[in-house]
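In response to the reviewer comment on reproducibility (Comment 2.3), we provide here a single inverse folding case reported in full, input and output, so that an independent group could reproduce the run without further information from us. The structure tokens appear first.
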């Protein structure tokens, strides 16, 4: 183990971590993009659940407190270079240089809310029994490989020296960002919660969908360390998720939040403003307006566009890009533009059947959009949002402004252009962005 890292992790564990994020992978070839660790009570025992994220999937692993430090140590020495850890009283940033020199930054939170302090105080503090902890290969545990191809795992031994790592149980109730029993007025008015905060049985799928959406948002918000957020929700409609986002950012995350919802329907906007006033959401307001010509002098931190129809999504994404918005969340809808143009004689099997052509056109549209966001300096993912059994519009584009290399940006632009050329199409976001970039179209 790295003794300096172990010392810092001992301090974090003693304070009761609420979240640990392991990121900045050492090699582009490794499986996991990052790991998010949160404490959970499972069968009345404190465990730490690690969400191990690849580009397309999440693998969950439950870790007993006594092996969390060697688990983190193994990940940092073999796969990653950065840890961000959050406790009730401090934020920690731990980085490994290319020569594996450790750099530690600690920021105290003297004004931390009592809610987090109480939560930390209530959690049992794990005891470290270092005689029974060591890192070594084990068939019972999940194997990991570093960039040199070396396999390592974490093994847990009992007092007789036997391996008791095993397959940790997953039969526990999933902890959600909004828990059942919480009084959330918008959810009550939507018919998802009863007045007592219980989930209405017929609305359990909707409740899961809302929490899944918040999990996707939470990951982006955590990475940006927002103190304040100014957000635009383009095409907000009845604004169900807009109200939930305001509740999440303001009351769960404790972030000073201003949200503007925009839609074309004046009657809908009037009802939304009335609801915001009823809930006492003073920094949430709604306006009648068109996405394509919307202007603001504010610095916008987040842009959300859920089911903005066809090219309205492109105008929303374009506005976000031009504002250098840090987080973009988009669920595209009704991607008709490419469907009317798409043609490729060599791949005619994709275009001769109407339903196949429609779905391929939608996927191609979102692939182009995601690539163009990468070209503009965003780390971009396309995630599953809602199961097919509920709606075919089940893809969410999540983009976070970051340091994307020029090589990757140019590659993403070329990929978007190649896809359009191969199927003889033009795409609105591409046409909006390119005149502003100064790049050559050829």
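Designed residues, in position order:
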């Amino acid at each position: 183990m790295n003794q300096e890292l172990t010392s810092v992790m001992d301090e974090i564990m003693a304070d009761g971590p609420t979240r640990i994020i392991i990121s900045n992978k050492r090699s582009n070839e490794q499986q996991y993009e990052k790991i998010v660790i949160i404490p959970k009570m499972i069968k009345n025992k404190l465990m730490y659940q690690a969400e191990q994220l690849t580009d397309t999937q999440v693998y969950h692993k439950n870790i007993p407190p006594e092996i969390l430090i060697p688990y983190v140590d193994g990940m940092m020495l073999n796969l990653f270079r950065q840890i961000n850890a959050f406790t009730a009283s401090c934020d920690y940033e731990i980085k490994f240089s290319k020569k594996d020199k450790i750099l530690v930054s600690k920021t105290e939170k003297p004004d931390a809310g009592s809610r987090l302090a109480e939560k930390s105080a209530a959690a049992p503090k794990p005891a470290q029994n270092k005689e029974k902890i060591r890192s070594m290969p084990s068939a019972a545990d999940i194997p990991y490989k570093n960039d040199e191809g070396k396999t390592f795992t974490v093994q847990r031994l009992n007092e007789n020296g036997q391996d008791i790592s095993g397959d940790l149980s997953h039969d526990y109730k999933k902890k959600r960002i909004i828990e059942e029993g919480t009084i959330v007025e918008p959810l009550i008015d939507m018919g998802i919660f009863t007045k007592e905060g219980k989930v209405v049985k017929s609305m359990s799928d909707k409740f899961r969908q809302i929490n899944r959406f918040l999990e996707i948002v939470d990951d982006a918000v955590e990475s940006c360390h927002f103190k304040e957020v100014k957000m635009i929700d383009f095409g907000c409609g009845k604004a169900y998720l807009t109200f939930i986002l305001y509740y999440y950012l303001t009351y769960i995350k404790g972030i000073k939040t201003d949200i503007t919802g925009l839609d074309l329907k004046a009657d809908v906007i009037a009802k939304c403003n009335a609801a915001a006033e009823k809930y006492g959401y003073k920094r949430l307001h709604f306006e009648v307006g068109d996405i394509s010509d919307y202007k603001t002098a504010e610095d916008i931190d987040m842009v959300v566009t859920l089911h903005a129809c066809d090219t309205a999504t492109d105008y929303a994404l374009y506005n976000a890009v031009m504002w250098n918005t840090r987080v973009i969340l988009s669920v595209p809808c009704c991607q008709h533009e490419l469907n009317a143009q798409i043609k490729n004689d060599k791949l005619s099997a994709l275009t001769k059947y109407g339903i196949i052509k429609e779905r391929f056109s939608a996927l191609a549209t979102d692939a182009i959009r995601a690539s163009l966001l990468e070209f503009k300096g965003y780390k971009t993912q396309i995630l599953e949002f809602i199961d097919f059994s509920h709606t075919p519009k089940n893809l969410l584009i999540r983009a976070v402004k970051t340091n994307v290399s020029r090589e990757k940006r140019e590659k993403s632009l070329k990929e978007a252009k190649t896809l359009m050329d191969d199927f003889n199409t033009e795409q609105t976001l591409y046409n909006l962005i390119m005149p502003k970039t100064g790049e050559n179209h050829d």
